[in-house]
Specification:
The protein is an alpha+beta fold. 66% of the residues lie in helices and 7% in strands. The chain folds into 2 domains: 1-190, Up-down Bundle (ABC transporter transmembrane region fold); 222-323, P-loop containing nucleotide triphosphate hydrolases (Rossmann fold, 3-Layer(aba) Sandwich), CATH 3.40.50.300. The chain has helices at 2-27, 31-79, 81-86, 90-144, 148-190, 201-205, 263-270, 293-298, 314-318, 320-342, and strands at residues 222-229, 240-247, 278-283, 286-287. It has a 4-stranded antiparallel sheet, with helices on one face.
């Protein structure tokens, strides 16, 4: 990709000049010979190049997806190695990894076989078109009285034209590969978060952004009305369906249920890690989607099942959220003081 960006424009310009210049010179030898020479070489090459580009793009996407799956599997096992060892599952995980690697290797062999097949077809068609062009040239020499020198000069100019065309084909092939490689990246960059947050500091300072920061202290009453939810990775599997719950201020509530009942999903929705597919959620009679997300999350205390330790001191880990909130409050206070002084 880096080479394409560094030298792609230069090669594209040079190849275009060779193609256009060669085509102009070839046309001076007569349209019949020029058309037959170009069509015999260009048409098969174009069809094969387009097909090869599409096949390679498809296989590249599948291969990258398989590679990510294997990487995720290895990362998951290594992160939970103590659990794997506790259940004596090392051999089973090793066999599973070996099976994935074998499937990956078989797929790679299949890709190489397809690429070799297209290469063989390309070379065979090229040799056939060269032979056909020589036969055509001999026929033209007999029919129109073209000399051998004129025919060889025409063949030389045709080679210049074809060299430029081959460079354009290679450029197209590289762009096709780059497109398949960067497609998922641009899809991720262009995706819009479903949870509404401030995108820029300018929006955060805008009074009409539509997010509410209550002036009164949070009382803590929560109302969930007819909430339905499915995870984006499994949109057809409902996790919650028309779920409702009311928790008054100061009330202590425990949510119980079997695995997969949606307990964790309820708290993820309350933390605004996701937005519900349907229904409404309120904090102190205000829809949580209308609240400033930073202010809202500071009203929630969380103790997760999985303990996460940052590479920092013990005190910083214990007071992680409090330290960040204190820094933000200091920034707000300093900003407010500055505004008052200037007014």
């Amino acid at each position: 990709m880096q080479e394409l960006f560094n030298h792609g424009l230069e090669k594209l310009l040079q190849s275009s000049i060779n193609v256009l210049g060669g085509l102009y010179v070839l046309s001076t030898y007569g349209w019949e010979l020029c058309a037959m020479g170009v069509l015999l070489h260009v048409l098969p090459k174009t069809l094969i190049t387009r097909k090869t580009g599409k096949v390679n793009a498809m296989y590249t996407t599948v291969q990258r997806s398989r590679g990510r799956g294997t990487d995720n599997f290895v990362s998951e096992v290594l992160l939970n190695i103590t659990t794997v060892r506790a259940f004596s599952a090392e051999r089973a995980e090793r066999e599973s990894f070996r099976g994935q690697m074998q499937a990956h290797e078989d797929f790679r062999k299949h890709v190489l076989l397809i690429q070799s097949l297209f290469g063989f077809i390309n070379k065979t068609v090229t040799e056939f078109t060269n032979d056909a062009f020589l036969v055509l040239g001999a026929w033209m020499m007999l029919k129109n009285g073209m000399s051998l020198g004129e025919f060889m000069a025409f063949k030389t100019y045709l080679k210049t034209f074809l060299d430029g065309y081959n460079q354009l084909s290679k450029f197209y092939f590289q762009v096709s590969n780059m497109k398949s490689t960067t497609k998922q990246y641009f899809q991720l960059m262009d995706s819009v978060p479903k949870v509404k947050i401030f995108q820029t500091p300018e929006q955060e300072q805008c009074q009409d952004a539509g997010f509410i920061i209550p002036k009164e202290a949070c009382k803590g009453s929560i109302v969930i009305e007819d909430v339905s939810f499915s995870y984006p990775s499994r949109p057809t599997i409902p996790v919650l369906s028309s779920f409702s719950l009311k928790i008054s201020s100061g009330e202590t509530v425990a949510i119980c249920g079997p695995n997969g009942a949606g307990k964790s999903s309820i708290f993820r929705l309350l933390q605004r890690n996701y937005s519900p597919s349907a229904g409404f959620m309120f904090l102190d009679d205000v829809m949580i989607e209308d609240l400033d997300i930073n202010w809202y999350r500071r009203q929630i205390g969380v103790v997760n099942q999985d303990i996460v330790l940052f590479d920092r001191s013990v005190s910083e880990n214990i007071a992680y959220g409090l330290l960040l909130a204190a820094d933000d409050d200091d920034d707000d206070d300093s900003g407010g003081g500055g505004g008052g002084g200037s007014g």
